[in-house]
Write a structure and sequence with these properties.
Alpha-Beta Plaits; 13 helices; two-stranded antiparallel ribbon; 12 strands; 3-methyladenine DNA Glycosylase II, Chain A, domain 3
């Protein structure tokens, strides 16, 4: 019995201490409790929970704190996109406009099948390490090294390395716009661009054309054909490289058509074509006069038609007063050879000697009248 009591008393004492400390901790938790920010909690619940850091804050908790404190915009989360931004806007009572999803794009086509390899690289499989050695093993110092830094940091499995060509490939369906790959690339050949941008300049080498072509068959040679072919002033040359102004670009894709090296790329499957409703068209000719590609035919006051030279730029649809022109995805390739030549401006009629004499007499009479009025006023 004595031995039993010797064991029982310590157990009871420990149990009593446990209960006492439990009550003490509960009391302390209630007294010193930090009130929850319901807005912050609702924002955190709306965020996707990827914790990728693409917003610039330490995970989704940090992003929620920043948005709730007014230090970040409702659309700060690139992964959530427009849908999450609208939810957060509703929580904050703010009207959030539409925002387009962005995806990572590889601004290089210099795989080993196109870009000359100067030497075999057998070092650390890291782009930073390879770039230190004589500016990389590829002839072009702007080319993707294809050693997988971007692939390793992507939390969504949206990037893979083509081992045969040693170049990064992005799966745009998986890309969540976090931007980690962009920050990781030592060559700066990854860039976040709108998913709808189907005309892209895919080269960063600003050297002279002859030098570029000696290094890579897909590099920009600075020929300026794209800027000259653009009818809307959307392309300017900066340091031998064309720069596209997305606010002016009409997605006509003519720049990619004329590019001799293929550095200017377009998704021709997305190319559009105009279609005129003949039952509504009044033949005013506004569409024909405003078409930059000679793609509209027809006589005045008769229904017009669109030929295969159409680029789908949509200018005709905007100018049509009857709104009888629609723009849709084309089902066959454009043929610029069928373009209609611009009609010459009508010549001004020649005046007869009698008409010229009458005009001169009218001018003289007007001058005499003005002189008489001036004398009378003085």
């Amino acid at each position: 019995m004595d031995k039993f009591l010797q064991v029982l008393w310590p157990v009871l004492l420990l149990a009593a201490l446990g209960v006492g400390f439990g009550f003490l901790l509960t009391w302390v938790a209630k007294v010193f409790a930090v009130p929850k920010n319901e807005t912050r909690e609702a924002i955190r619940e709306a965020l996707p929970g990827a914790n990728c850091g693409g917003c610039g804050y330490p995970g989704c908790d940090g992003c929620a704190d920043a948005i709730a404190a007014g230090k970040a915009a409702p659309d700060a989360c690139p992964v959530g996109g427009s849908e999450v931004a609208k939810k957060i806007g509703g929580i904050l009572g703010i009207d959030v406009g539409e925002s387009e999803k962005k995806v990572a794009r590889v601004i290089c086509q210099g795989g080993t099948d196109r870009c000359r390899v100067r030497f075999d690289y057998h070092g650390i499989m890291d782009c930073n390490a390879a770039a230190i050695i004589q500016d990389g093993y590829k002839a072009c110092r702007f080319a993707c090294l294809g050693l997988g830094n971007c692939e390793r940091v992507c939390p969504f499995g949206a990037i893979r390395i083509d081992q045969a060509k040693k170049i990064a490939v992005v799966d745009e369906d998986k890309c969540q716009s976090c931007g980690k790959c962009v920050a990781e690339c030592p060559r700066g050949i990854l860039e976040l661009r709108p998913v709808s941008q189907n005309v892209n300049m895919l080269c960063r080498n600003a050297e002279m054309g002859k030098i570029v072509s000696q290094k890579c068959s897909a590099g920009c040679i600075g020929c300026e054909r794209c800027s000259k072919a653009c009818k809307f002033g959307a392309i300017t040359m900066v340091g031998h490289l064309p720069v596209i102004d997305s606010t002016k670009c009409r997605r006509c894709m003519v720049c990619a058509e004329v590019c001799p090296s293929g550095a200017m790329k377009a998704v021709f499957e997305d190319r559009k074509v105009a279609e005129i409703d003949k039952d509504v068209c009044i033949g005013c000719g506004l569409c024909k006069r405003n078409c930059q590609f000679g793609a509209i035919e027809g006589e005045m006051k008769k229904p017009h038609v669109v030929n295969d030279a159409c680029t789908g730029c949509g200018v005709c649809a905007e100018k049509c007063p009857k709104k009888c022109i629609t723009v849709k995805i084309r089902d066959k390739a454009r043929d610029p050879r069928v373009a209609v030549k611009a009609e010459p401006a009508p010549a001004k009629p020649q005046l007869t000697p009698e008409q010229l004499a009458k005009i001169e007499a009218a001018k003289a009479a007007k001058a005499a009248k003005e002189a008489a009025e001036k004398e009378k006023a003085e």
